[in-house]
């Protein structure tokens, strides 16, 4: 009896594979389907598992042909295309901004200067923040309050917590929105900004001034790289001092809380070092509220 059942299962499995294969081959008769699969170098043995999702992508791509503006978008989410990406031996489908949506977003955030920031961060908006995430409720409330009350509020935020939890995304969402309302914003991946400054050029004073004087500033990923004495005192120190003296809202993200950051900023263990590092931490404390982000890693 068992033998017969096993045989039946094997037979059904074969049948199922055959049905999948047939529907994939049928779909490939559409030149647009074929073109998508070929352009992404998707092998048949992978593509065959995603026929209907690929068909959804093809349908959306066809909608885009000859389209002239977001107003006439026929896709499921206006301005976005359901699009596959080959990741090892599987396909991941995401909503990717079309050229009109891309242009719209770039235009909206033309008041933001980004240094070395990933593309997704430029797209961050408050409406994309998941409000049901209980672990971030306090942070989301804080951001909303800032958004509603700025420029009456001047205190920024020091947001620390685990890698990939969405710290940069959340603050960028707030600052991008404020830029849409007309504020001037600078968002800097701070470790790379400092690295760039090492290649001394005449523009370096201008670059530091840009950070000092920006209406709103995010220094992203504090403490991610060892810092030199010069970077700490002449660059970071002078930026936070200036912003404190002029009540300019300043935001920071870090994997470290302020105590841990203080240790990171003491380049050596000497007494002078500790005082210099403490001075910066004190300024950051005056510039910000501090919140911790406990959440799952959102990086894929
Ligand atoms: P962290 O700064 O804490 O290391 P990120 O802000 O870089 O984390 O977020 C990690 C990844 O998750 C990024 O790719 C980011 O774009 C994505 N992400 C974070 N929060 C959201 C969100 N609310 N909606 C969509 N993507 C998000
Ligand atoms: Mg980050």
Structure description:
With 300 residues, this protein is an alpha/beta fold. The chain has helices spanning 2-28, 31-39, 44-47, 51-64, 99-108, 119-122, 137-149, 167-180, 190-198, 204-213, 229-245, 258-265, 271-287, and strands at 80-87, 90-97, 112-115, 156-161, 185-189, 216-222, 250-254, 288-293. The chain contains 13 helices and 8 strands. The strands form 2 sheets. It has a 6-stranded parallel beta sheet with strand order 3-5-6-7-4-8, sandwiched between helices. Helix 2 crosses helix 4, helix 11 runs parallel beside helix 13 and helix 12 (258-265) packs antiparallel against helix 13. It is elongated. It starts with a helix and ends in a 7-residue tail after the last strand. The protein binds adenosine-5'-diphosphate (ADP) and magnesium ion. Adenosine-5'-diphosphate binds at residues 120, 128-130, 163-169, 253, 298-299.
């Amino acid at each position: 009896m068992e033998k017969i059942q096993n045989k039946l299962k094997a037979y059904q499995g074969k049948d199922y594979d055959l049905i999948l294969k047939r529907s994939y081959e049928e779909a490939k008769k559409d030149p647009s389907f074929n073109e998508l699969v070929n352009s992404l170098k998707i092998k048949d043995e992978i593509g065959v598992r995603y026929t209907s999702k690929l068909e959804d992508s093809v349908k959306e791509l066809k909608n885009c042909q000859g389209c002239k503006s977001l107003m006439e978008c026929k896709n499921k989410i206006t301005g976005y295309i359901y699009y596959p990406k080959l990741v090892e031996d599987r396909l991941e489908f995401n909503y990717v901004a079309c050229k009109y949506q891309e242009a719209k977003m770039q235009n909206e955030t033309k008041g933001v200067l980004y240094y070395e920031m990933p593309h997704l961060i430029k797209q961050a908006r408050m409406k994309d923040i998941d409000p049901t995430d209980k672990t971030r409720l306090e942070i989301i409330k804080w951001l909303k309050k800032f958004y509603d009350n700025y420029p009456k509020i001047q205190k920024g935020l020091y947001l620390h917590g685990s890698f990939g939890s969405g710290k940069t995304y959340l603050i960028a969402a707030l600052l991008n929105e404020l830029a849409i309302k007309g504020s001037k914003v600078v968002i800097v991946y701070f470790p790379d900004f400092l690295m760039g400054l090492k290649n001394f050029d005449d523009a370096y004073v201008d670059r530091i001034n840009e950070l000092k004087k920006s209406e709103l500033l995010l220094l992203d990923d504090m403490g991610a790289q060892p810092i030199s004495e010069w970077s700490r005192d002449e660059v970071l120190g002078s930026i936070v001092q200036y912003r404190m003296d002029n009540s300019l809202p300043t935001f920071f993200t870090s994997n470290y809380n302020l105590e841990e950051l203080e240790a990171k900023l003491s380049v050596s263990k000497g007494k002078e070092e500790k005082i210099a590092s403490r001075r910066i931490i004190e300024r950051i404390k005056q510039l910000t509220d501090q919140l911790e982000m406990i959440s799952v890693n959102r990086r894929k």
